[in-house]
Write a structure and sequence with these properties.
Elements: E1 2-6, H1 12-19, E2 26-33, E3 37-38, E4 41-51, H2 52-70, E5 75-80, E6 82-85, E7 89-97, H3 100-117, E8 120-126, E9 131-135, E10 154-155, H4 159-162
Parallel strand pairs: 1-5
Antiparallel strand pairs: 2-7, 3-4, 4-6, 4-8, 4-10, 5-7, 8-9
Helix pairs in contact: 2-3
């Protein structure tokens, strides 16, 4: 079981391999990607930021809860921060279980809890040149909306960290 906030591109195949085992009959891989429209507005990309230490603690708690609830320790969660382009993976969850139904249920539990509880925000970049924070805690959109408090230990990826 592992949960992490990452700067590098998410390697979904690596996550699936990390949870694979002969005792499992199913691997469910959820990948959340940057889409080109949100709430009817064209999106050109986005930037994720997180209260990193708290986000990783909460993600680990969620993974542990899912493990207990659905009977598998084979869970890996990664959420990316920094500037992402359309189609980039922002979050990936790999869950393996002896039975597919429980693997699906555990994966859904993890993403729903992550969206509701983890202090990660996204700054959407719109085609009209405007930008808007959407993320933890504001009740707007998928994950709520609100500018992260500048006093938080936010994680912003620089160009050199992204490898761009």
């Amino acid at each position: 079981m592992r949960a992490a906030v990452v700067v590098a591109k998410i390697d979904a195949a690596r996550l699936a391999a990390e949870v694979a085992g002969h005792h499992n009959g199913a691997i469910v891989l959820f990948i959340g990607t940057v889409r080109d429209v949100n709430d009817g507005r064209p999106v050109t990309g986005m930037e994720y930021t997180a209260y990193r230490s708290m986000a990783e603690r909460e993600m680990a708690d969620i993974a542990r809860e899912a493990a207990e609830r659905f009977g598998t320790d084979d869970i890996v969660v990664e959420h990316r921060v920094g500037v992402l382009e359309l189609g980039d993976a922002s979050v990936a969850i790999a869950v393996a279980h002896p039975h597919r139904g429980s693997a699906y249920d555990a994966s859904r539990y993890v993403i729903e809890q992550l969206k509701a509880r983890v202090p990660i925000w996204k700054l959407e970049h719109y085609a009209d040149g405007t930008r808007e924070w959407v993320g933890a805690g504001s009740g707007k959109g998928e994950g709520g909306s609100g500018d992260p408090d500048s006093d938080l230990e936010s994680t912003h990826a620089s160009t050199s960290e992204r490898g761009a």
